[in-house]
């Protein structure tokens, strides 16, 4: 069909198709029962993707709500017996300390200037990969060149977009093992010291401060930058490590489930998109398919591969 469209295109600088010519293009149309079977198969994938997406939102909301309950509202286990202090730094439970990010995250660095090469196995994360407080590797690109060890992204690193209006200040935490992966120079890596701070507490604390980071940019419109020193000097309230670890143990299963569900959705979308042209073209014949159980079986098989 694409060849037929190109054959009817006219124009030298910008090719286009007149409506009168477009109406003459033959579109292969399978019988209506076959169309319905194709739609049922694709809908089964879409329904499961949407269900997984809802579960992701619920799990993320639970983890963030628990963070706010414990570390913003101070309603954590045993809080009834805690003495509060108040000074120029504000009201907080006794023993909790106001620390700068650099106190608990000794590495705050920008990424590399990549040399893009789609034949490489090395990935470089850009600002498009960080959205809705999640990290997606789908917009990441491949590059050539050796990357310093400290700029290799690892589990638990917090990534902050650091250039430009609209994307600056977005935060995501790496919550899966990545191999040969870095970030470009528009993204800041913040790596926590796990002897001083719990990984999950630290990640959710910085996610909770996204609006703060969004307001830290300096420079002219279109050239706004969030410098490393501004990230490093940002303060967070640090409870004792035992309480942080208790929190981490509670939210870790929730956050791990989010990663697994997102991985499943990536696999389901890929499988659905591969199926679509084969179903529409008739390469996969579904005319004799019992659609009542077949669609569910196909999706279940795709889930098992995830």
Give the topology.
Elements: H1 2-7, H2 19-22, H3 32-71, E1 84-87, E2 90-93, E3 97-100, H4 101-104, E4 107-110, E5 115-116, E6 122-125, E7 130-131, E8 134-135, E9 141-144, E10 158-161, E11 171-173, E12 181-183, E13 187-191, H5 199-208, H6 210-214, H7 228-232, E14 235-238, H8 241-281, H9 291-305
Parallel strand pairs: 6-12
Antiparallel strand pairs: 1-2, 3-14, 4-13, 5-9, 6-9, 7-8, 10-11, 10-13
Helix pairs in contact: 3-8, 3-9, 8-9
| Computed structural class | alpha+beta
**What portion of residues is helical?**
40-55%
Q: End-to-end span in angstroms?
A: 33 Å
The CATH fourth-level homologous superfamily of the largest domain: DNA methylase specificity domains
- What about the largest sheet? 4 strands, antiparallel
How many DSSP H or I helices? 9
Mean pLDDT: 89
Work out the count of structural domains: 2
* Cα radius of gyration in angstroms: 25 Å
What CATH calls the topology of the largest domain is Adenine-n6-DNA-methyltransferase TaqI, Chain A, domain 2
Provide the succession of SSEs: HHHEEEHEEEEEEEEEEHHHEHH
Q: What portion of the residues fall into strands of 2 or more residues?
A: 15-25%
Strand order of the largest sheet: 4-13-10-11
Coarse shape: globular
CATH class of the largest domain: Alpha Beta
Total number of β-strand segments?
A: 14
Task: Give me the CATH architecture of the largest domain, please.
Answer: Alpha-Beta Complex
Unreliable residue runs = none
Q: Brief description of this entry?
A:
With 306 residues, the protein is of the alpha+beta class.
């Amino acid at each position: 069909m694409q060849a037929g469209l190109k054959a009817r295109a006219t124009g030298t600088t910008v090719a286009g198709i007149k409506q009168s010519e477009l109406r003459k293009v033959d579109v292969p149309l399978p019988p209506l029962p076959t169309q319905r079977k194709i739609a049922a198969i694709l809908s089964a994938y879409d329904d499961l993707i949407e269900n997984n997406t809802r579960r992701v939102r619920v799990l993320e909301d639970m983890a963030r709500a628990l963070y706010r309950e414990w570390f913003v509202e101070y309603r954590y286990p045993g809080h009834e017996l805690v003495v509060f202090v108040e000074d120029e730094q504000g009201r907080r439970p006794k023993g909790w300390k106001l620390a700068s990010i650099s106190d608990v995250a000794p590495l705050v660095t920008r990424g590399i200037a990549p040399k893009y090469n789609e034949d490489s196995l090395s990935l470089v994360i850009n600002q498009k990969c960080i959205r809705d407080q999640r990290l997606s590797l789908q917009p990441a690109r491949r590059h050539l060149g050796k990357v310093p060890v400290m700029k290799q992204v690892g589990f638990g690193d917090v990534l902050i977009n650091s250039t430009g209006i609209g994307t600056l200040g977005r935060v995501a935490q790496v919550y899966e093992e990545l191999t040969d992966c870095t970030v470009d120079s528009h993204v800041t890596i913040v790596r926590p010291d796990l002897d001083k701070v719990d990984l999950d507490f630290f990640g959710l604390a910085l996610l909770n401060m996204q609006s703060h980071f969004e307001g830290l940019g300096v420079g002219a419109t279109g050239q706004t930058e969030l410098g490393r020193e501004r990230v490093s000097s940002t303060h967070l309230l640090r409870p004792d490590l035992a309480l942080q670890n208790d929190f981490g143990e509670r939210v870790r299963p929730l956050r791990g489930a989010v990663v697994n569900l997102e991985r499943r959705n990536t696999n389901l979308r890929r499988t659905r998109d591969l199926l679509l042209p084969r179903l529409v073209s008739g390469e996969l014949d579904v005319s004799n398919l019992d659609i009542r159980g077949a669609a569910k079986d196909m999706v279940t098989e795709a889930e098992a591969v995830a």
